[in-house]
Structure to design on (336 residues):
């Protein structure tokens, strides 16, 4: 006798699919947006795409970084030169660590042990030991700007705008292990997880530099532009044409802001070509991907909002109002 198994198999696969969707939606995926002219961090639920909370810390929140497991958020406060540690389960600050000067964009190791904080008014970078809740080392940097972590518990990066380079901090020795020339004044940048390639926004370039860390070889990538005259902006110099950029979780695409076109441009890493553009709000500043790669999120400093973009569809699906002059954004699965 013939048994028709098509329907039962279909139902089984459908049931498995529904379980997977339910598990994904059950994750607490959050986006955190600092409001640099305010005292707060806006919290957005990336499952519902709604604002759900506001974390008040101190005037002029500047830098944000997230521990890999999503349990602790780190924020730098310019008004009192501190690093704040936030418990993401309660959205409450659990520590305040004094820094040696005015901080910028920070970076944390995946295990949450060390945070690097560029100190703008001291030409230095503070290395903070989080368990000890204190600065354990300060290294010299010529006009520091942004710190970055590529997924290593040993290495952190800090940009030196005064030397046209990015310095690599070895946390085992608390010294620099390398200084990588980037072909111009570095603005924001990202480093691939294997540490081999840097993508660096630089002053006066509507695009970025692609830098091979080992050889020092550079490729200048120029993005197309509909507008060629920079718009005056209160929070960025006119020669900053690109400020934010982020690599997709799978490493295949780089999404880059355009302050000329109020857009994000999409760069295909494998083919080395610009493959798309998405319009966002005014003054796109900082970019991050949701951990699952579904969304790209960008802060729009000129319109005090955040654009949330569907990566696959390459379109903005929601724009949410936040606080005044949003800048840094980070996303995480809480309790991952």
């Amino acid at each position: 006798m013939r048994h028709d198994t098509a329907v039962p198999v279909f139902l089984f696969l459908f049931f498995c699919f529904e379980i997977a969707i339910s598990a994904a939606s059950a994750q607490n995926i959050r986006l955190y947006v600092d409001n640099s002219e305010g005292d707060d961090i806006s919290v957005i639920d990336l499952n519902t795409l709604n604002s759900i909370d506001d974390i008040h810390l101190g005037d002029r929140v500047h830098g944000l970084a997230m521990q890999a497991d999503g349990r602790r958020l780190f924020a730098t406060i310019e008004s009192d030169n501190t690093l704040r540690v936030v418990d993401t389960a309660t959205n409450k600050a659990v520590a305040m660590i004094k820094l040696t000067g005015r901080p910028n964009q920070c970076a944390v190791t995946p295990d949450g042990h060390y945070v690097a904080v560029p100190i703008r008014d001291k030409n230095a970078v503070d290395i903070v030991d989080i368990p000890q809740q204190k600065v354990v080392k300060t290294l010299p940097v010529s006009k520091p700007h942004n710190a970055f972590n590529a997924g290593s518990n040993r290495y952190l990066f800090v940009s030196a705008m005064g030397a046209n380079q990015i310095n690599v901090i070895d946390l085992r020795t608390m010294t620099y292990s390398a200084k990588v020339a980037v072909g111009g004044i570095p603005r924001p940048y990202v480093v691939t997880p294997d540490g081999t390639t840097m993508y660096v926004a630089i002053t006066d370039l509507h695009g970025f530099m692609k830098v091979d860390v080992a050889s020092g070889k550079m490729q200048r990538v120029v993005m197309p532009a509909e507008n060629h005259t920079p718009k005056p902006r209160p929070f960025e110099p006119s020669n900053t044409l690109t400020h934010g950029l982020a690599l997709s979780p799978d490493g295949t695409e780089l999404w880059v802001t355009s302050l000329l076109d109020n857009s994000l441009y999409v760069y295909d890493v494998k083919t080395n070509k610009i493959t798309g553009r998405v319009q966002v709000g005014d003054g796109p500043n900082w970019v991050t991907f949701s951990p699952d790669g579904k969304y790209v999120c960008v802060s729009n400093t000129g319109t005090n909002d955040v654009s949330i973009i569907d990566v696959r569809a390459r379109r903005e699906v929601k724009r949410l109002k936040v606080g005044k002059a949003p800048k840094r954004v980070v996303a995480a699965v809480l309790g991952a």
